[in-house]
Amino acid sequence: MNHPVIVVISVGEMGAAVGGRLREKGAEVRTSLKGRSQGSAERAMRHGLMAVDDDAALIGGAEFVLSIVPPAEAVPLAKRLAPAISGTSKKPLYVDCNAVSPATVNETAAVIHASGAGFVDAGIIGGPPQPNSAGPKFYASGGETKRFLRLRDYGLDVREIEGEIGVASALKMAYGSLTKGVTAIGIATMLSASRAGVADVLKREFADSQPQLTALLARSVPRSVPKAYRWVAEMEEISAFIGNADAGGTLFLGVARLYELIARSHEGDGRDIDVLKRFLKS
User: Fold this and answer.
1) Residue 140 φ then ψ, to 5°
2) What is the pLDDT confidence band of residue 208, given thresholds at 50, 70 and 90?
3) Count of other CB atoms within 10 angstroms of residue 276
4) What's the rounded Cα separation, in Å, for the pair 232 and 230?
5) Buried b vs exposed e over 203-242: b needs ≥16 C-beta within 10 Å?
6) Hey, where are the domains in the chain?
7) Which residue, 145, 165, 135, is CA-closest to 74?
8) What does the pLDDT look like over 148-189, one tens digit per residue?
9) What does the alpha-carbon distance between residue 120 and residue 79 come to, in Å, rounded to a whole number?
10) For labeling, which of 111, 129, 154, 175 is most exposed (least CB within 10 Å)?
11) Alpha helix segments (H runs only) across the chain
12) What does the pLDDT look like over 15-42, one tens digit per residue?
């Protein structure tokens, strides 16, 4: 059996774990550490990924390129790799797996199509692959999704959905608007109640009348803190996806600013993070 060569960029928690899953199933997995942190290098090594920083060598012979980067990096990565893709005779399938709006993913697709490669729009729902688990779902749309389905044989839960490029990203935007939006509302509620001096009373009332919501926030808020810096751009993409201010487009610009505040607190004095911890403490 000829195993595919797969490029996975970047090696954040999701990208590294996805690359590791593909490698465990027999694929050769390459990545680039150009401009990345020591933490990225350590994750690449831990998951057995091959670091290749020359883009031509990185792309040469690859069957798939999986773009798993923060939203603001999706188009720049495509523009960076396009010359290398143009210069290779064997064109890989470029799979954009980022939390971006349909407009942004179509901009990326135009760059990649101009290089001669095929393109799939994919939205990841779920956390990084873990041992003995199926891992996240890769919802995929566009005319070339059948090629992407091959990676089911290499441990990815790829789910084809009807529609053109942009449909999978729309699903991701809609899903994230609710899950991350609810978490943001919870954070805003906790911070404002604590400032007003009613946090303890509110906690007791939540426990009494909203136990399921209390349990959800107890899980989601702590998980959101180290990821808040990445969610800023995602909320801006969701705002662009919703578009119409009357339908809530501006709401998610506010959510973006809230996650920006949490990211600053996480990296700085930690005061707001401490408030959230106290609220969630049993």
Assistant:
1) -130, 140
2) very high
3) 21
4) 6
5) beebeeeeeeebeebeebbeebbebbbbbbbbbbbbbbbb
6) 5-163, 170-280
7) 165
8) 999 999 999 999 999 999 999 999 999 999 999 999 999 999
9) 16
10) 175
11) 13-24, 38-46, 55-59, 74-86, 102-114, 145-148, 167-196, 199-209, 211-224, 228-242, 249-267, 271-280
12) 999 999 999 999 999 999 987 888 888 9
pLDDT confidence bin for 131, thresholds 50/70/90: confident
| Topology annotation, domain 5-163 | Rossmann fold (3.40.50)
Q: Are 70 and 97 a contacting pair, CB within 8 Å?
A: no
CA distances from 58 to 8, 51, 89 (A): 10, 8, 14
> How many Å apart are CA 24 and CA 167, to the nearest integer?
30
Contact 63, 7 (CB under 8 A): no
Tens digit of pLDDT for each residue in 236-254?
999 999 987 666 778 999 9
Query: How many C-beta atoms lie closer than 10 Å to residue 281's C-beta?
Result: 8
Alpha-carbon distance of 217 to 220, in angstroms, equals 5
Tokens, residue 134: 């199926």
